[in-house]
Amino acid sequence: MNQPPTIAIVGIGGVFPGAEDLESFLENIMLARASAREPPAGRWLLDLADVYDPSGPQPDRIYSRRACFVDDFPLDTAGLEVDKPLRLEVRKSNAAAMGLYLGSGFRRVGEVEGYYGDGEDAVLMEK
């Protein structure tokens, strides 16, 4: 008779939306609790009303007002390597995003004609 090998779980941990510890996370699963919610005030740089469009996936838009957020979790960036300079593309018509990036220290460095599938140009930005 074949017997499966014995396994010892030494420890387990994690960070989960709507649960401050593993026990709460497992309880949420057992009780089928949903953790999705609207973003907490100040969590996103853009106002939800400026980017929400329920008609489905579109560039520079979201189609759900709800997401899962981990609260009170400090991001420790020590050890993360981020390529410098930071570069991004923004639809030429997306004034809200362009204003956000310009206000965050990005600058316009060029344009790409017809970059998006619908033929709209992209503005290249760098920080």
Widest sheet: strand ordering: 1-3-2
Give average pLDDT, whole number: 85
Q: How would you spell out the order of helices and strands?
A: HHEHEE
Percentage of residues in DSSP E strands: 5-15%
Q: How far apart are the first and last residues' alpha carbons, in Å?
A: 65 Å
Helix content: 10-25%
What composes the largest sheet? Answer: 3 strands, antiparallel
What is the radius of gyration computed over CA atoms, rounded to a whole number of angstroms?
21 Å
At the fold tier of CATH, the topology name of the domain at 84-127 is Alpha-Beta Plaits
Per DSSP E runs of 2 or more residues, the count of β-strands stands at 3
The CATH class label of the domain at 84-127 is: Alpha Beta
Low-confidence stretches: none
Structural class: alpha+beta
Number of helices: 3
CATH architecture of the domain at 84-127: 2-Layer Sandwich
Name the shape in a single word: elongated
Write a short abstract of this structure.
The protein has 127 residues and is an alpha+beta fold. It has 3 helices and 3 strands; from the N terminus they run ααβαββ.
